[in-house]
């Protein structure tokens, strides 16, 4: 599994590191991923997911079932 959010699909972004003298080097802007245990009410168990912090905030507001359904994820596999 790569560095990718399991719900939203967010991943690293290509960018440039620019020095004071304006030399440019390629770099990656990684997404802020966290391991999160979420209680899944329908399955009556905990589910461990690798989520971006933005997805965690949205998850608290909308719920795991709604977000997994929208993303097309089967929570039985986690």
Q: Which oligomerization state do the chains in this entry correspond to? A: single chain
The profile of the biggest β sheet is: 2 strands, antiparallel
CATH topology name:
Ribosomal Protein L24e, Chain: T
Instruction: Give the overall form.
Output: elongated
Count every beta strand, where a strand is a DSSP E run of 2 or more residues: 4
Q: How many helix segments?
A: 2
Any guess at the CATH architecture? Roll
CATH homologous superfamily descriptor:
Ribosomal protein L28/L24
Outline the low-pLDDT stretches: none
The percent range for strand residues is 35-45%
Helix content: 10-25%
Mean pLDDT: 95
Taken together, the total number of domains comes to: 1
Report how far apart the termini are.
Answer: 13 Å
How does this structure look, described?
The protein is α+β, with helices and mostly antiparallel strands. The protein has one domain (13-77): Ribosomal Protein L24e, Chain: T. It is built from 2 helices and 4 strands; from the N terminus they run ββββαα. The strands form 2 sheets. Strands 1-2 form a two-stranded antiparallel ribbon. Strand 3 and strand 4 (45-52) form a beta hairpin. The protein is elongated, with a radius of gyration of 16 Å. The protein starts with 12 loop residues before the first strand and ends in a 7-residue tail after the last helix. The model has no long low-confidence stretch (mean pLDDT 95).
């Amino acid at each position: 599994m790569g560095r990718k959010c399991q719900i939203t699909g967010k991943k690293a972004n290509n960018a440039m590191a620019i020095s004071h003298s304006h030399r440019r080097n390629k770099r990656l802007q990684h997404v802020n991923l966290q391991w999160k245990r979420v209680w899944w009410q329908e399955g009556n168990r905990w589910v461990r997911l690798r989520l971006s912090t933005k997805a965690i905030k949205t998850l608290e507001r909308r719920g795991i079932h709604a977000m997994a359904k929208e993303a097309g994820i089967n929570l039985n596999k986690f």
